[in-house]
Specification:
By secondary structure, the chain is α+β, with helices and mostly antiparallel strands. The chain contains 4 helices and 11 strands; from the N terminus they run ααβββββββββββαα. The N terminus is likely disordered.
Length: about 220
């Protein structure tokens, strides 16, 4: 803690040049510690950057917290921002308003760090985020130069092909489908058995006659 306190005192001493460069003119009011300041360069406060001009710094009328600081325009009819500060202590009071500034990167606006009212040992310290947008913008590396546009290849134009002669389509002969042949008539089947024409009696009679004749012939030969 001692080292940090010493560093703050040392930084405040180094920033006196910045305080002189801004040359703010201040007038004070004891009741709400109203202070009129004029900045000739842009000045950062928590949450925004004030352009060069005349402003009013004063404590907000609050019974619970006496470290709420308002930043107003010169006519006090517009509040730029209301900031919740933290108490800060100094060893010796001064007869005039003291405003110190934080270090910033080259080209970035000065940032108000502390504000002490004339004759007071206690003042207000303003706290900034470690990566607030103003610091990031000041420390940002310049973007690389845009690359030259790529050369578009020239398309090779081929000559249009010569028109082909239109061929007349040849007539196509369509074969007529012939009708299927009529089915052949079935061949007559040969009967395996002769049909019966009549009764068996004539055959029996014939066989009997032959038998009688044969018997007569045999008897004649036997008597001879």
């Amino acid at each position: 803690m001692k080292i940090e306190y010493c560093c703050r005192i040392f930084s405040a001493g180094l920033l006196c040049a910045g305080l002189i460069a801004l040359t703010p003119t201040a007038k004070a009011d004891a009741w709400d510690k109203k202070t009129i300041v004029t900045f000739h360069q842009p000045v950062e406060i928590p949450g925004m950057v004030l352009p060069p001009g005349t402003y009013v710094m004063r404590l907000m009328d609050s019974q619970s917290d006496r470290d709420i600081v308002q930043f107003l325009n010169k006519n006090e009819n517009h509040v730029y921002n209301t900031v919740l500060a933290i108490p800060d202590y100094r060893v010796e009071p001064t007869a005039h308003t003291v405003i110190t500034f934080e270090e910033r990167a080259a080209g970035a606006p000065h940032a108000i760090r502390t504000w002490f009212y004339p004759g007071d040992l206690w003042g207000d310290e303003f706290v900034y985020a470690k990566a607030h947008p103003v610091v990031m913008a000041a420390q940002a590396v310049a973007p690389p130069a845009p690359a030259p546009p790529a050369v578009q290849p020239v398309a090779k134009v081929e000559p249009a092909p010569a028109p082909q002669p239109v061929q007349t389509p040849q007539p196509v002969e369509i074969a007529q489908a012939s009708p299927p042949p009529a089915p052949a008539a079935p061949a007559p089947q040969t009967p395996t058995e002769l049909p019966k024409t009549g009764s068996d009696l004539p055959l029996i009679a014939l066989l009997g006659t032959l038998a009688v004749i044969t018997g007569a012939v045999l008897n004649r030969r036997a008597s001879a």
